[in-house]
Amino acid sequence: MAFRDLIDEVDDTVFEVLGDTARIEGREVMGMFSAPWLQPKLGRITTSLREPHLVIRVKDSAGVETRQRVEIDLPVEDGGGAYTIASVEPGGDGLIALVLRKTP
């Protein structure tokens, strides 16, 4: 088994177990959502999250563009709701961070 295939299997499991359901223009994808108002703290140092992010896999990113609508399937208290994609940032590691803006 090639290394890339092994990592793909690991990602399948991680996103299935830990992922959040999102809909991009109505198409369901699994991703990892993080919201700035729920900023994690590491000791006394806070992380540098500034905008909500949805990290998705490259294989789920076909057709994803800025200004598309994203709905995060979480309670409002956890950041769920409607967003617009502000930018698409490939990480070079098989994942893409979608920087989001809350839709009023």
Summarize the structure.
The chain is an alpha+beta fold.
Architecture overview:
This protein has about 100 residues and is an alpha+beta fold. About 15% of the residues lie in helices and about 40% in strands. The strands form two sheets. A six-stranded antiparallel β-barrel has the order 1-2-5-8-7-6. A two-stranded antiparallel ribbon has the order 3-4. It has one helix and eight strands. It is globular, with a radius of gyration of 14 Å. The protein has a single domain, classed as Thrombin, subunit H. The model has no long low-confidence stretch (mean pLDDT about 85). The longest helix is centred in the N-terminal third of the chain and has 16 residues, at about 5-20. A hairpin with a 4-residue loop joins strand 7 (about 80-90) and strand 8 (about 95-100). The chain has one helix at about 5-20; strands at about 20-25, 25-35, 40, 45, 55, 70, 80-90, 95-100. Pfam families: Phage_attach.
Note the topology.
Blueprint lengths: L2 H16 L1 E5 L2 E8 L6 E2 L2 E2 L6 E5 L11 E4 L8 E10 L4 E8 L2
Antiparallel strand pairs: 1-2, 1-6, 2-5, 3-4, 5-8, 6-7, 7-8
Characteristics:
single chain, two-stranded antiparallel ribbon, 104 residues, globular, alpha+beta
* Number of strand segments: 8
| Helical coverage, percent range | 10-25%
**Can you tell me the CATH architecture?**
Beta Barrel
Give the radius of gyration: 14 Å
Beta-strand percentage?
Answer: 35-45%
Element string (H = helix, E = strand): HEEEEEEEE
State the strand order across the main sheet: 1-2-5-8-7-6
Shape verdict: globular
Helix and strand composition category: alpha+beta
Q: Distance N terminus to C terminus?
A: 47 Å
Average pLDDT score: 87
Counted by DSSP, the helix tally is: 1
Low-confidence stretches: none
Per the CATH scheme, the topology name is Thrombin, subunit H
Number of domains: 1
InterPro entries: Phage_Head-Tail_Connect_sf, Phage_tail_attach_FII
Pfam families: Phage_attach
